[in-house]
Amino acid sequence: MTDDLTTDETITESSGEQLTIQRTFDAPRERVWRAFTDSNELEQWFVPDGMTAEVRANELEPGGEMAISWMNDDQRIDNEGYYVEVIEHERLVSSEETETGELRLTYEFREVTDGTEVVLTQEFTSPVPDGAEAGWISILDQLEELLEEGSNR
């Protein structure tokens, strides 16, 4: 089964164990790449709404450690894994071992007329969980806010 969701800025497709989200940001590819790879910037946007983030490791090279914690008053979620592929300004792939197996995230960065298109593909070990699409859209909204703030300086 495939569910397609299209908003003004985001296109999502969920099929089986894979979720793909496509969104264009009004910023140069180098700027969007920095938001995805700079630890200080990640802490500002790469976190579910209502939580804070702490980047504990961010070694941008194949096999390099990646660790970010999401926290609020009630819980802490530790995301820990490693980078599989790092191609500057083009592609970033990470892998995380979970209780049910490997979770893989691929980000592709493409220059387009309106700025930078990011295609995010998340591969799960079971059907895409409820709320995954909405969660990513919320996180990407926060990224857009960060990029807009930077362009207004």
Molecular structure report:
This protein has 153 residues and is an alpha+beta fold. It has a single domain (2-127), classed as Alpha-D-Glucose-1,6-Bisphosphate, Chain A, domain 4. The chain contains three helices and nine strands, in the order βββααββββββα. The protein has helices at residues 29-37, 39-45, 132-151, and strands at 2-6, 10-15, 18-25, 52-58, 65-71, 76-87, 91-98, 101-112, 115-123. A nine-stranded antiparallel β-sheet has the order 1-2-3-9-8-7-6-5-4. A hairpin with a 4-residue loop joins β5 (65-71) and β6 (76-87). α1 crosses α2 (39-45). The longest helix has 20 residues, at 132-151. The protein is globular. The termini are far apart. Residues 1-8 have low confidence and may be disordered.
Broad CATH class: Alpha Beta
| Rounded mean pLDDT score | 89
**Largest sheet geometry:** 9 strands, antiparallel
Shape: globular
Radius of gyration: 15 Å
Low-confidence stretches: 1-8
Strand order of the largest sheet: 1-2-3-9-8-7-6-5-4
- SSE sequence, one letter per element: EEEHHEEEEEEH
Fraction of residues in helix: 10-25%
Helix count?
3
Number of domains: 1
CATH-scheme architecture: 2-Layer Sandwich
How large a portion of the residues is in β-strands, by DSSP E?
over 45%
Q: CATH homologous superfamily - what is it?
A: START domain
